[in-house]
Amino acid sequence: MHFRLPEETELMRSAIRTFAEEVVGPGAVRRDQEGRIEPKLLRQMAELGLWGVPIPEAYGGAGGDALAFAVVLEELSRCCASTAMAVAAHTSQLAWPLYRMGSDAQKRELLPALAGGRRLGAGYFGEGMTYRKTDKAYSISGSGPIKANAGAADRLLVTACEETVSGKRRSMASSAFIVQCADSAASETGSLSLQKESAALGLRAAAPGALAMDGAKAAKADRLGKKGQGEEAARHAAVLESIGEAAIAAGIAQGAMEAAISYAKQRKQFGTPIEKQQAIAFKLADMAVRTDASRWLAYQAAWRLQEGLPCAKEASAAGNYAVRAAVAVCLDAVQIFGGNGYMQEYGVERMLRDAKSLEAAREVRAAGNIRDMICGHGGDKDA
Asked: Which residues belong to any copy of the Acyl-CoA dehydrogenase/oxidase N-terminal domain (predicted)?
């Protein structure tokens, strides 16, 4: 066994860490307050290929793998978890299922713009969406929460169950559809409303929001895969999404731990840095253990995915552990900072809010049976 990343991945990590520290980090507080990622940062990330890390170069992506994807998210979230979440949702909820299941025509038409950052994606795979088939299109209705990119998404991937003329579900099997937002700058596009939350707890700059569709149209060519393959699309999304959440959580924990260590070295009580206190040293040790465990669980799941091995259970386990570990690490960091831990200028309160929001997002999905789906019967069909 080799507990070492490939050299090219480490070189990429170094480049992304520099970018995160010099470009992403300085504006994190402002973006958190404004609840958006500014267009300039979107373009800068596109120039680095961050919107299509695991997508092959033939389709405009960076040609990386799942492990590279995890490392990118980890380094971004070390400075700003919202930025990492925007990338993760775009990739896992639309670009990745499209690459795995799309027709050649769909991939040639849509993937280059998505992987190149010229179009932004999001997805919804929960219950509550239904569709009717018409002569020329599909008509989709329903509502639910959007995890990220509600403020700027150009394309949405949604799963919906077919309903009869009387309004009853014809089948519990869902189908997947790529729905176009007419104007990414608009919050409403006729029969499709995509509104950003005004006061989210954390991950604010990732633009979580609410989706409402009332007869929104998707062309026949916009169905992803065959009829009834919505669960497969959701499974592809859920696996990479769990890996992404684990990596983001590990990055949050790393950032909080580094901030706590730096503060503990500088803060003195009775003339001695508080890092010398046994209680503080024990907290820092526990934080390091949780952070490392989260990181290697994420890496293991990513490696299994890129090797074509069963990985759904490993991905879900990594996500479930890492988000809880991130919350624990951030709580310890706030306690080490004392009263300063609640001040925006020190950053750890934002990290705690982001970690709690990440944890809440997984709980919402669990309530929607996504976690049960990928951990239960047939959970490794995607690998």
From this structure: 7-117
The DSSP-derived string for 67-119 is HHHHHHHHHHHHH-HHHHHHHHHHIIIIIHHHHHH--HHHHHHHHHHHHTTSS
| Residue 151 shares a structural domain with residue 222 | yes
CATH code where residue 29 lies: 1.10.540.10
| Domain boundary residue, one of 228, 243, 262 | 228
**Local confidence band at 376 (pLDDT 50, 70, 90 cut-offs):** very low
Enumerate residues 6+ apart whose C-beta is below 8 A from 52.
59, 60, 61, 62, 91, 95, 111, 114, 115, 116, 117
37-65: pLDDT as tens digits = 889 999 999 999 999 999 999 999 999 99
Same structural domain, 111 and 141 = no
Single out the residue of 332, 365, 170, 356 nearest to residue 258, CA to CA.
332
Q: Is the entire prediction scored with pTM above 0.90?
A: yes
Two tokens, residue 26: 């300085």
Task: Indicate the DSSP class of residue 7.
Answer: H
- Residue 242, domain member (yes or no): yes
